[in-house]
Amino acid sequence: MKLKHSLYAGAIALASGTSSFAADSSDPIIIPIHNWSSQIVMSHVVGQILESMGNNVEFVTTDSQAVYESVRLGDVSLELEVWEGAFGASFRAALEKGGLHDAGDHDAVTREDWWYPMWTKDACPGLPDWEALNACASVFATPETGDKGRYLDGPVDWLKHGKERVDALGMDFVVINAGSAAALWAEIGSAEKDKRPVVVFNWTPNFAEAVWPGEFVEFPEWVDGCDKDPAIGPNPDALYDCGNPAQGYLKKAAWDGMKDKWPAAYGALTKISFTNPQIAQMAKFVDTDDMEPEEAAAQWLEENESVWKAWIAEG
Ligand code: TMO
C-alpha cells in the first residue's frame, strides 16, 4: 500500500515535469477567509499561486479566533494572517494543544489598537497619551453613551477585551463593537465632514493610513503576560491593562499534516512573505478601488510576478 502510493506519487511528479519526489495530494487545500480585506485578498492571492502549481484549493469563511482550533484539527489547512494583537492568544493556545505550527513570519510589522484621525487632536491636544484621551472622554460622548466617551471597537471576533481594558484602566468610555470593518470606515468618513473627534479601532498595514492621517493611542506598553497575569501592567489586580503590541508580528500558521500531504504547497507557504506596503495595497484594491477580492488578487499577481514566482521556484 505504501509502495503503491509512492509509485503513484512518482508518476505524478514525472507527468507534471517536476523533479520533486513526492507530489501534492489532489484533495483541496482549505484556506479560511475572514472579515477584513487584506486577509481576504491575500487568501485569494495564495490560493491562485497554489492553483498555478497544480493544487486544488477551497475557501471557507470562518470566525477569526475559532480558526486556530480548525487549523489544529486539519479542518482548514493554514492561516495566512496571524496578527499578534488580535490573535496571539488564540494562536498560542492552539500551539500548546498541538496540531498546528508557526509557518514563518511575513516581512511586516503590525499594530492594532485604538486610533483617531488627526483632526481629533484639535479637540484633545494631549493625545496620543491614553490618560489625556480619558480626560477628554466627554468630547467623544454621544446619546448612546451618555456622559462617557464612545469607542468604536472592531467586530467581536477580532479583539475580545476592549471592555476589560476600559475597566482595568478605569476609563470613562463605552466600548461599542462595529458590525463590520465597513462600519469603522463609515464612522471615520462621516466624522471627516465636520472634523468631529472620534476614536475607533484601526490597524496597520491597512488602506486607511493612505486615506486618513492619524495616530494610535499610546496605552501602557504591552508586556508579555499582560493578558494572563494581573500583576503585569500598571493595575496589579487586572488583566488587559496594556495596549496591544506596537511592533507586532504577522505570521502564517499551518496544520502539522500539511507538509506531508501537500509538500510542494507547504514549501511555498513557508517562503511566502508579504511586506507592509504589499498588504496595504491588497486592502486598497477592495476598500478604495471597489474591486472584488478575486479580481484584486489577480491584479496583485499580475503586478508582482517576480515576487511570487520566486516562492514557487525549485530548490
Ligand atoms: C485583525 N485585524 C487586522 C482586523 O485587526
Features:
315 residues, D-Maltodextrin-Binding Protein, domain 2, five-stranded mixed beta sheet, three-stranded antiparallel beta sheet, 14 helices, disordered N terminus, binds trimethylamine oxide
What report would you give on this structure?
The protein has helices at 2-15, 37-52, 67-73, 84-97, 120-123, 130-135, 162-168, 181-193, 208-211, 258-261, 263-271, 276-287, 293-303, 305-312; strands at residues 29-33, 57-61, 78-83, 100-105, 111-117, 149-153, 173-177, 199-204, 214-216, 250-255. The chain has 315 residues and is of the alpha/beta class. It has two domains: 2-109 and 248-312, D-Maltodextrin-Binding Protein, domain 2 (3-Layer(aba) Sandwich); 111-216, Glycine betaine-binding periplasmic protein, domain 2 (D-Maltodextrin-Binding Protein, domain 2, 3-Layer(aba) Sandwich). A five-stranded mixed beta sheet has the order 7-6-8-5-9, with helices on both faces. α2 crosses α12, α2 packs across α13 and α12 crosses α13. Trimethylamine oxide binds at residues 36, 83, 86, 112, 154, 158, 203.
Sheet having the most strands = 5 strands, mixed
Query: If you average the pLDDT, what whole number results?
Result: 93
Low-pLDDT sequence parts: 1-15
Radius of gyration equals: 22 Å
Q: Note the run of SSEs as H and E.
A: HEHEHEHEEHHEHEHEHEEHHHHH
H/I helix tally = 14
CATH first level of the largest domain = Alpha Beta
Which class best fits the helix and strand makeup? alpha/beta
Helix content: 40-55%
Total number of strands: 10
CATH fold-level label of the largest domain: D-Maltodextrin-Binding Protein, domain 2
Q: How many domains comprise the coordinates? A: 2
Query: What small molecules does the structure contain?
Result: trimethylamine oxide
CATH H-tier superfamily of the largest domain: Periplasmic binding protein-like II
Please give the order of strands in the largest beta sheet.
Answer: 7-6-8-5-9
